[in-house]
Amino acid sequence: MGQRIQERASFDNVRYSNCWEDADVLLQALDVREGGVYLSISSAGDNTLSILSGNPSLVIALDISAAQLACLELRMAAFASLSYQEVLHFLGVGDGSGRSATYRVIRSALSRDAREFWDSHPEFIERGILHVGKFERYFRLFRRWALPIIHSRDTVLELIREKDAGARADFYRLRWDTWRWRLIFSIFFSRTVMGRLGRDPEFFAYVEGNVAERIRERAGYALTALPTHDNPYLEYILKGNFENSLPFYLRQENFEAIKRNLCRLILFKGSVDEALQANKGVLFDGFNLSDIFEYMSYEEYVSALERIAASSKMGARLVYWNMLADRKPPDLFKERLAPLGEIAGALFLKDKAFFYKALRVEQVR
Ligand SMILES: C[S@@+](CC[C@H](N)C(=O)[O-])C[C@H]1O[C@@H](n2cnc3c(N)ncnc32)[C@H](O)[C@@H]1O
C-alpha cells in the first residue's frame, strides 16, 4: 500500500460534521485531569471541546483535513460569542433560519483558511453545520430511503421511546429484527455502499470480514442492552437531528466550562506524527485518537505508538477505537504500555455510538 491515507483519499470537504465517537465514554477513558495536556483528533470538534470541560491547561487539536479543522474553529467562534441557545440554533439543532446573519457576526474570529472555507459554503451555514458532512448525508439517505422500507414511522418512534431492558429486548425480537431490517441493513452498511456514500473505499483498506454483519450485531446490542431514549447518536440517525438528547459538548451544563477554556485550545493541521514533531518537548497526559489507526497499516500503527509513548508523561492514557480493523499493541510494548482492559471493557459496554467493535485504553508506564 505504501502511501499515507491523506494521499489515498481526499480531505477537501467535510466528511464528519459531528463526532461519531461517544464523548461520555471518551472522557471517562481519558480521565481528563485539571491542568493536564492533551492531544485530540479534531474531526468535527465535538469531542475536543468536551475535553475542555475538564479544565486542562492545553489541548492540541489536530486533523489532516483543513475542512474538519474549519468545523472545530466555527464551533469555537460560536461558543466564544453566542449564548447557549444561540449556539444550538446556529449549529443546526432545531429548525429555523437566519444562520447566515449570525455567521457574519462571528466570522471575524476565524483564521483566514476557515473563513475562506465557510465563506465559500453559505449553504452549509444556512442549513446548520451539524448536517453537512458526507457521513451525515449517508445517514440522511438511510433515513429517507432505506428506513421507511424497513419500518413504519410509528415503529421507529416506538424504538426510541423509554422502556426497561426487558421491554427493549422483546420489542427488538418481536418487532424490530425483521428480515427487511436484516436485508436492507446488510446492503446499506456494506463495505461497498458505506465506502462510496458514507466514508471512503480507502478507509476499508485494512478491514477484513463482513462489515455490515458486525455493525448490525453491535446495533442489536445498542438497541436492547442500552437505553434508546437518551442516545443522541441513535436519535440523530433516526430523526436527522438532536431533539431529546444532546452530545456532551452541546449540553447546557458543560457550556460555561467549555467557553471558559477555549483559550487553552490550539489547532494543528497535519498527522499525529507531524503534530508531535512540531511540539517536541511537550509531554502529554492523554491522547484522543478516534479510530485513526485503522486507516494505517499495522506497521504504521506500531511506529505511531512508539512516537506517542515517547511524547507521554508517566501515566498518560491513549484512547482509541477499533471500528472494523484490529489494532492492539504487539508484545514489544509490554514494558511501556499497560492495557487498561477492565476500564475499556466496562466503557465499551456503555458505548452509545455503537458502530465500533472495541475500545482500547492504554496507559504509559
Ligand atoms: C479517523 S476519522 C473517524 C471517523 C469515524 N469514527 C469513522 O470511522 O468513520 C476522524 C478524523 O480523523 C482524521 N484523521 C485520520 N487519520 C489521521 C491522522 N493520521 N492524523 C490526524 N488526523 C487524522 C480525519 O480527517 C477525520 O477528520
In short:
The chain is an alpha/beta fold and 365 residues long.
In words, what does this structure look like?
The chain has a domain at 134-239. The longest helix has 17 residues, at 134-150. The protein contains 19 helices and seven strands. The chain has a seven-stranded mixed beta sheet with strand order 3-2-1-4-5-7-6. Helix 4 crosses helix 7. It has helices at 5-8, 23-30, 46-52, 66-81, 84-91, 99-106, 112-119, 122-127, 134-150, 153-159, 165-176, 179-188, 191-198, 211-224, 232-239, 252-260, 272-278, 298-310, 341-348, and strands spanning 37-41, 58-63, 265-269, 284-288, 312-322, 337-339, 358-364. Bound molecules: S-adenosylmethionine.
Q: Strand order within the widest sheet?
A: 3-2-1-4-5-7-6
Bound molecules: S-adenosylmethionine
The ordered string of helix (H) and strand (E) elements is HHEHEHHHHHHHHHHHHHEHEHEEHE
By secondary-structure content and strand pairing, the structural class works out as alpha/beta
- Percent of residues in helical segments? 40-55%
State the low-pLDDT regions, or none. none
Hey, roughly how much beta strand do the residues contain?
5-15%
